[in-house]
């Protein structure tokens, strides 16, 4: 019952996320009148604060019940969202943005710790996380649709209504967390025990590189379509819709490929190969046009969806399966921080690789091949690193993780 309530709460809050992330750029620049440079710097500062906060917030969930910690984070972010209605300059914008964004990664870590504390079996944990992600994407899609209506109205009152609605969704999430039963607990370790777990750190550091796949769609593909092909720009939006639909339908089934760490490691390798193949296929569309070019981009998008589904499942299987169960929050905080670090630099990677004149023949095709090589290099050591990590767990865990 608790997981079902949390799932609905996550879906509602994701609706608010979709509404906000569809409209924030124009709200900041058109309604608040902030310079784009100030907005960019503010978002960067807030993102950096989120990296620093992820592990301490996760550790709080280990020391205390993760439910009140997650409720506190959610309430703080909801109030910060509401405070955008009172922003009247750069400094108040920065204060609201840091307060809203900095706890986000930590909140994800605490929520994962809560879910894994409610579900004892590793395979069931991965499946529960997959269900949460499906609810997130469905809610996000609905919110993005509402955001499109706000953009069409392009009126200050419409933006204010969107901000108010998003703040309310945080309240719904907080109430849903309160309805969840108390998770299992164990002896509270020192948070730094996670920092000494070099095998775990190595696994999450390498697999987090695969999260470049998100910037690949949000940054790389639009730049590529506009600068290096003669294909319609709307194709980028169609690919996003295809990706969201694929995640909603197949994320839960893909959870079966990451029931154990060893299985998750193999899935990570396959995902890296598939994402690399997607990049290579996009490279062939340089200067492309017509039905053939569209077909190649759609085929690359299908490979991208498969790679993303596998990466996300593998990330759960490894980050959850290899963590110490008495330090769930701290371990998930590290995992969130690693992923967020890659995401921080992801747009720059694709802007340099495919957004400019390119590195081969002025087309940018070589940039896609370079990113493909990064995917392949990242996943190559994952099975060996996972085996190393499994050997350093308890004997019972090691035997289970290598099945």
Which helices and strands appear, and what pairs or packs with what?
Blueprint (H helix, E strand, L loop, with lengths): L1 H30 L4 H28 L2 H18 L6 H12 L2 H15 L3 H32 L2 H23 L13 H4 L2 H10 L4 H17 L5 H21 L6 H23 L6 H32 L6 H28 L9 H15 L2 H10 L3 H7 L2
Helix pairs in contact: 1-6, 1-7, 2-3, 2-4, 2-5, 2-14, 3-4, 3-5, 3-7, 5-14, 6-11, 6-13, 9-13, 9-16, 10-11, 10-14, 11-13, 12-13, 12-15, 12-16, 14-15
User: Largest beta sheet, briefly?
Assistant: none
**CATH topology group of the largest domain:** Growth Hormone, Chain: A
Q: What proportion of the residues is helical, as a percent range? A: over 70%
Task: Give the end-to-end Cα distance, rounded to a whole number of Å.
Answer: 31 Å
Estimated share of beta-strand residues? under 5%
Number of strand segments? 0
- Helices, by number, come to 17
Instruction: List the secondary-structure elements in sequence, H or E.
Output: HHHHHHHHHHHHHHHHH
Tally of structural domains: 2
The top level CATH class name of the largest domain: Mainly Alpha
Q: CATH H-level name of the largest domain... which superfamily?
A: MFS general substrate transporter like domains
Mean pLDDT figure: 88
Whole-angstrom Rg: 21 Å
**Helical/strand content category:** mainly alpha
User: What's the quaternary structure here?
Assistant: single chain
Shape: globular
| Uncertain ranges | 357-362, 395-403
Assigned CATH architecture of the largest domain: Up-down Bundle
């Amino acid at each position: 019952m608790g997981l079902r309530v949390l799932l609905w709460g996550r879906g509602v809050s994701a609706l608010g996320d979709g509404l906000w992330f569809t409209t924030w750029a124009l709200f900041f620049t058109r309604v608040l009148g902030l310079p784009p440079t100030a907005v960019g710097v503010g978002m960067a500062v807030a993102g950096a604060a989120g990296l620093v906060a992820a592990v301490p917030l996760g550790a709080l969930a280990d020391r205390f019940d993760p439910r009140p910690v997650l409720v506190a984070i959610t309430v703080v972010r909801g109030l910060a969202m509401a405070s955008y209605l009172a922003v009247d300059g750069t400094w108040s914008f920065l204060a609201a943005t840091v307060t809203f964004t900095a706890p986000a990664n930590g909140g994800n870590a605490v929520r994962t710790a809560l879910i894994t504390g409610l579900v004892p079996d590793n395979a069931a944990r991965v499946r529960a996380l997959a269900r949460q992600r499906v609810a997130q994407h469905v809610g996000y899609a609905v919110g993005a649709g509402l955001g499109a209506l706000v953009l069409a109205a392009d009126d200050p009152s419409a933006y204010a209504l969107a901000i108010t609605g998003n703040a309310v969704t945080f309240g719904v999430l907080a109430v849903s967390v309160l309805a969840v039963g108390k998770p299992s607990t164990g002896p509270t370790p020192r948070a730094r025990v996670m920092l000494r777990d070099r095998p775990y750190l190595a696994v999450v550091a390498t697999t987090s590189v695969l999260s470049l796949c998100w910037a690949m769609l949000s940054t790389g593909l639009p730049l590529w379509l506009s600068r290096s092909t003669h294909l319609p720009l709307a194709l980028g939006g169609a690919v996003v819709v295809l990706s969201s639909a694929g995640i909603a339908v197949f994320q839960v089934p893909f959870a079966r490929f990451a029931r154990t760490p060893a299985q998750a490691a193999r899935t990570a390798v396959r995902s890296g190969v598939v994402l690399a193949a997607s990049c290579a296929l996009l490279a062939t569309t340089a200067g492309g046009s017509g039905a053939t070019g569209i077909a190649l981009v759609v085929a690359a998008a299908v490979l991208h969806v498969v790679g993303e589904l596998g990466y996300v499942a593998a990330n759960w299987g490894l980050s959850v399966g290899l963590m110490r169960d008495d330090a769930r929050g701290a371990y998930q905080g590290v995992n969130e921080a690693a992923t967020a670090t890659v995401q921080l630099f992801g747009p720059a990677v694709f802007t340099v690789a495919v957004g400019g004149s390119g590195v081969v023949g002025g087309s940018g095709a070589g940039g896609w091949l370079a990113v493909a090589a990064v995917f392949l290099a990242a996943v190559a050591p994952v099975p060996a690193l996972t085996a190393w990590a499994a050997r350093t767990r308890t004997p019972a865990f090691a035997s289970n993780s290598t099945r």
